[in-house]
């Protein structure tokens, strides 16, 4: 029987952190020879291995056709080893082993986009994290086996570009049609960081001189027509290299750094040593084709992958349970980089919005897990918002507590101790502790338990004694698999304001890190505690969790007046935004009246639009229907949320009245001091156009149509949404125009699909039209995500015809591309919160999938989803 036939009913395939064992052999060096042909590829390898501990020699391999195997020069027979679908095991191997293996693989028909695969007619690339290398050859494919790789790549000359990690040693001809290149990477690395590329690509070249004086050749490979769109990425790369030297003292260590763009990629990008492979969506950027938000994303992903060179590559993970060691830290580093690129407050707003929209729901539902899980079935299912974003928050909390200088001492110690090693979360926290001199060991609790803590705070003011008291209490929802939940250390950044004048008060409290300052920090690390502030002349307004100093759900009984006050007087931009969001949640989820919110917006926004258009654009944020739905744990009715949210948006638009048009006409991105404020102005213009359309002002459509034709992509797309989503008379013409302009620009065309899928009145016929369109392609994850993401912008649709859409995709992709299939199925993970009868209907539909799935990816996700 094929053991992978139906994991749902198969024996438990769970892997546990507690079972970790060192590999029995290390690999001193590996020589690869990869020969690519049109209908197969041959991979020959030579591994020099040494025994480290007792035990079998285990090589992992999947979907490989073994051609030959020799051990210390002697051919092995089938009886000399055990071979199954997952591994090749040699018992009683000698202590010193030289293995020569030849396998045949099929990159040309590899639809999983994992291992070596053909990404287009002109391009073969690899994706090996976490377990793709075992689909290229037999190898101890685990992150704690580090080796020196020498790679020969051979292919037809119609693929002039032959790349692998490290330095190019040699190139040459095999015959009239074929050529080869030999690369060697001097740095020891785990197999998940191996990469090679075979293709017909153009290149943009530049160089960078490191703080150590190393002249690094920088190359970005893409299709010829896309080369001009690589400028922003190239600048971001140089900027990241400088930033890492300045902020962490980390220079680059090789003589070249290459980035290759492909449109067939399961995620954003991959940090392979010296040879990053990127989804085109995370490297190509140009105002003509790309929105401002996408440009920001390109810069942050370029930085993220570059920063992995130290946090991930030079120091890697001991095992995949430690994934958040490299991801959480690298996300924290890329967020800090982006804070320096645009406004720090707005970057924090955007990052927290993502955390709350994705990580909080994940952590409150059936897929909840600790940032460092202690078990999994399929590690690909754990590249989650919890591992990445909550992981980043844990690092941010420690960095905030330590302050810049001590945090740097801590990170210096980490790089000093562990360079060249594969380590654990404990090693990281221990190094930070040793370097900074501050004991951070209780932060390990954050890594080890699931759930978003609830932070309840109560305030009390005593006029007589002029004492202001804050009482704190923390709690976590019980979790079946993690019964021993403990209190976590919660840094609470806070400020007090005079309720009359709006002045920020000096804080007198011994409980704070520093007494007699205005910006206070209290570390709450018990189940309950109370702190006091003395000399407070009148009842103040408190601002808690400034800059979102900890990833918790704050429960504080603010009056609406106090929230409006904070919007007006708080000097922390993030908490101004948070005040609007709290007000809106009360209106939309607790049926509070909207007057105070509207009035506060009218009082504050016009002025702020002048002074800080970027922040102003975020203060217009209204939580999405999806986010609001995620705050409801039972009897969720998507249509009701939609109705309330629409009503609020109409009220807001009416309240702004003529101001919307005046503001629209007065704003000019060309008059802004820098790119980020210009970005704010473009966002505001789109918001004003949307408001005008809501007011029923027909001139909105004429202005939108004009902007559609004259603006860059941010404006063009903003205008297109106004036209299409309001069924304006010009809508179809604009859509047709967009199509013909961008027919050959896959990323822009994705937007064309997304806008239509996200139409507020989209039906299953709309989705059928899009998924049957000749440009829809199930082999291209970006296109699937464009339509699915658009559909999911309207939860009313997600939870009606969308259920079949997502189940259908999971079913189809289960064998073809299970990583993406599993991810898409997760959209339905909160099915159990729906009101009846919808809840039972969706459950029944999910149940029908159960006997059909084969992959570990989809079955693990489905099992967890149905386990509530
Ligand atoms: N480390 C990769 C993610 C690999 C995902 C595999 N399913 C990209 C990143 O986080 O930088
Ligand atoms: Zn990463």
Describe the structure.
The chain is α+β, with helices and mostly antiparallel strands and 868 residues long. It folds into 4 domains: 24-200, tricorn interacting facor f3 domain (Immunoglobulin-like); 317-448, Neutral Protease, domain 2, CATH 1.10.390.10; 454-550, Sandwich (Immunoglobulin-like), CATH 2.60.40.1840; 596-865, Zincin-like fold, CATH 1.25.50. It has an 8-stranded mixed sheet with strand order 6-5-9-3-2-12-15-14, with no helix packed on it. The longest helix is centred in the middle third of the chain and has 34 residues, at 385-418. The chain is globular, with a radius of gyration of 28 Å. The model is unreliable at 1-10 (pLDDT under 50). Residues 304, 308, 327, 330 line the site of zinc ion. The site of (3S)-3,7-diaminoheptanoic acid has 13 residues, from β20 and α2. This is Aminopeptidase N. Residues 561-866 form the Peptidase M1 alanyl aminopeptidase C-terminal domain. Keywords: Aminopeptidase, Hydrolase, Metal-binding, Metalloprotease, Protease, Zinc.
């Amino acid at each position: 029987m094929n053991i992978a036939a139906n994991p749902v009913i198969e024996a438990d395939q769970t892997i546990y952190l507690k079972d970790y064992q060192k590999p029995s052999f290390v690999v001193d060096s590996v020589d690869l020879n990869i020969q690519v042909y049109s209908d197969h590829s041959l991979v020959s390898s030579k591994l020099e291995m040494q025994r480290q501990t007792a035990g079998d020699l285990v090589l992992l391999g999947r979907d490989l056709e073994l051609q030959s195997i020799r051990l210390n020069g002697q051919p092995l027979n089938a009886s000399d080893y055990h071979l199954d679908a997952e591994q090749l095991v040699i018992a009683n191997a000698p202590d010193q082993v030289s293995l020569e293996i030849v396998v045949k693989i099929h990159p040309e028909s590899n639809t999983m986009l994992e291992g070596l695969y053909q990404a287009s007619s002109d391009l073969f690339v690899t994706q090996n994290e976490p377990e793709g290398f075992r689909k290229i050859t037999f190898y101890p494919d685990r992150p704690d086996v580090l080796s020196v790789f020498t790679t020969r790549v051979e292919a037809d000359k119609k693929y002039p570009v032959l790349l692998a990690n490290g330095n190019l040693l040699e190139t040459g001809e095999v015959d009239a049609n074929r050529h080869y290149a030999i690369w060697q990477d001097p740095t020891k690395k785990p197999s998940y960081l191996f990469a090679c590329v075979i293709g017909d690509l153009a290149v943009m070249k530049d160089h960078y001189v490191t703080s150590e004086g190393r002249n690094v050749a920088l190359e970005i490979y893409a299709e010829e027509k896309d080369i001009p769109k690589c400028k922003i990425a190239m600048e971001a790369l140089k900027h990241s290299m400088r930033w890492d030297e300045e902020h962490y003292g980390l220079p680059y260590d090789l003589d070249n750094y290459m980035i290759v763009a492909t449109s067939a990629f399961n995620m954003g990008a991959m940090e392979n040593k010296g040879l990053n492979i990127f989804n085109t969506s995370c490297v190509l950027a140009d105002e003509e084709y790309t929105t401002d938000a996408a440009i920001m994303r390109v810069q942050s992903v370029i930085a993220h992958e570059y920063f992995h060179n130290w946090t991930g590559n030079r120091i890697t993970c001991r095992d995949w349970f430690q994934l958040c060691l490299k991801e959480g830290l690298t996300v924290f580093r890329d967020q800090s980089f982006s804070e320096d690129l645009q406004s720090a407050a707005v970057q924090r707003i955007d990052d927290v919005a993502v955390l709350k929209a994705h990580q909080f729901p994940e952590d409150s539902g059936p897929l909840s897990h600790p940032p460092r899980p202690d078990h999994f079935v399929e590690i690909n299912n754990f590249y989650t918002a919890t591992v990445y974003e909550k992981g980043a928050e844990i690092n941010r909390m420690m960095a905030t507590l330590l302050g810049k200088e001590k945090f740097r001492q801590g990170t210096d110690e980490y790089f000093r101790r562990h360079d060249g090693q594969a380590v654990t979360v404990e090693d990281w926290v221990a190094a930070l502790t040793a370097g900074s001199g501050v004991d951070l060991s209780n932060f390990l609790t954050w890594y080890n338990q699931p759930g978003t803590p609830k932070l309840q705070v109560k305030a009390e003011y005593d006029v007589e004694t002029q004492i202001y008291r804050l009482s704190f209490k923390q709690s976590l929802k019980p979790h079946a698999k993690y019964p021993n939940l403990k209190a976590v250390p919660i840094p609470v950044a806070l400020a007090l304001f005079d309720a009359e004048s709006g002045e920020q008060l000096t804080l007198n409290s011994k409980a704070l890190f520093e007494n007699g300052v205005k910006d206070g920090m209290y570390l709450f690390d018990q189940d309950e505690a109370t702190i006091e502030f003395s000399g407070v002349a009148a009842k103040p307004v408190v601002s808690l969790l400034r800059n979102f100093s900890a990833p918790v759900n704050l429960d504080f009984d603010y009056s609406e007046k106090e929230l409006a006050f904070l919007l007006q007087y708080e000097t922390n931009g993030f908490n101004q935004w948070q005040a609007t969001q709290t007000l809106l949640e009360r209106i939309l989820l607790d049926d509070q009246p909207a007057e105070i919110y509207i009035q506060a917006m009218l009082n504050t926004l016009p002025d702020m639009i002048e002074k800080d258009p970027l922040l102003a654009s975020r203060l217009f944020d209204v939580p999405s229907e999806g986010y609001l739905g995620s705050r409801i744990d039972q009897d969720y009715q998507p249509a009701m949320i939609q109705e309330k949210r629409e009503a609020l948006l109409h009220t807001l638009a009416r309240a702004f009245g003529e101001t919307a048009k005046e503001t629209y006409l007065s704003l000019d991105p060309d008059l802004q001091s820098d790119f980020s404020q210009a970005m704010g102005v473009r966002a505001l213009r789109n918001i004003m156009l949307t408001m005008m359309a809501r007011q029923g002002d027909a001139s909105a459509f004429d202005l939108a149509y004009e902007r559609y034709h004259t603006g860059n992509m941010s404006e063009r797309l903003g205008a297109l949404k106004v036209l299409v989503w309001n069924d304006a008379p010009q809508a179809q013409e604009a859509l047709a125009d967009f199509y013909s302009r961008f027919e050959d620009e896959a990323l822009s065309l994705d937007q064309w699909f997304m806008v239509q899928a996200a139409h507020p009145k989209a039906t299953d016929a709309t989705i059928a039209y899009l998924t049957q369109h000749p440009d829809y392609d199930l082999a291209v994850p970006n296109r699937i995500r464009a339509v699915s993401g658009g559909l999911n912008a309207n939860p009313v649709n997600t939870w009606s015809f969308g259920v079949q859409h997502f189940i259908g995709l999971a079913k189809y992709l289960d064998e073809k591309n299970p990583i993406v299939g599993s991810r898409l199925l997760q959209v339905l993970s909160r099915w159990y919160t729906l009101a009846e009868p919808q809840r039972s209907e969706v459950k029944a539909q999910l149940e029908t999938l159960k006997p059909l799935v084969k992959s570990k990816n989809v079955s693990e996700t489905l099992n967890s989803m149905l386990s509530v």
